Amino acid sequence: xxxxxxxxxxxxxxxxxxxxxxxxxxxxxxxxxxxxxxxxxxxxxxxxxxxxxxxxxxxxxxxxxxxxxxxxxxxxxxxxxxxxxxxxxxxxxxxxxxxxxxxxxxxxxxxxxxxxxxxxxxxxxxxxxxxxxxxxxxxxxxxxxxxxxxxxxxxxxxxxxxxxxxxxxxxxxxxxxxxxxxxxxxxxxxxxxxxxxxxxxxxxxxxxxxxxxxxxxxxxxxxxxxxxxxxxxxxxxxxxxxxxxxxxxxxxxxxxxxxxxxxxxxxxxxxxxxxxxxxxxxxxxxxxxxxxxxxxxxxxxxxxxxxxxxxxxxxxxxxxxxxxxxxxxxxxxxxxxxxxxxxxxxxxxxxxxxxxxxx
Length: 359
Prior knowledge:
359 residues; alpha/beta; Aspartate Aminotransferase, domain 2; Aspartate Aminotransferase, domain 1; 2 domains; 3-stranded antiparallel beta sheet; globular
């Protein structure tokens, strides 16, 4: 079977080695005579899978011991509500930076629970850059500052961690495990699985332990971080197979050399594609070069009538999911960890041929 190159923004490409291992184990995990999908989440076998996955993630990100790691349900979007429910801790307001659609959705949800101060917004420039730090207007006593360091849809990314006197909360769905990060600079990190962690179905939450245990009145038990942490993310039946596959991805990442090695690969892939786009005279990237994402690269053509033919012809060539998000149009290539150099080279070769034929 020939596999296509998958540039989907999520659910995204998974390492072939991981898929092959899952295939080999799907009927009989390690001679136990059953699939991981059929195991009791309370049984010793699955508990060992879960504990090993957490330890491997802690190793990969060098997560300090005073941080809880949770594998929860509801995707990253569920965290838009769970974060204020858990982190307001008596405060009435929170600060949010608006750099794209996911920031906007987080802001809209948080407004149901507290006063939201938008410290700065790039909406007036169609989310093509990050507002200058000097322009950020912080409130006096916010519970936390929420940022989205990579906006998957608009392809905007920043790597700095804001220096503030309150916990920094970061949606790292599209960048987690793509390079080293200093977890200790954040109060809470959350990330939907379907980018660099594994298949859809899980959101990873990494939170400093002093920030949990004081939820707002009326918070559902399932949404209480302390309850989830105290129960090993198993207050109810978790998405066991997604958790198992995430664990396989973590082991694969360790074999690649960890996040430092992946960072070198990802920077190389992104630089190669941006270099071609910028020099092509046919394609363009709208994002401020200072804040271009390594993971999600949108690009356009001057004649928008060519967008649909581009995507259709690319699919016929085995290059899948290159249509831009419906809200912005154009095209987009997502270059997550499981997308190899060869996929980027194949994409560039196709883009050159398409430009030659249509330019």
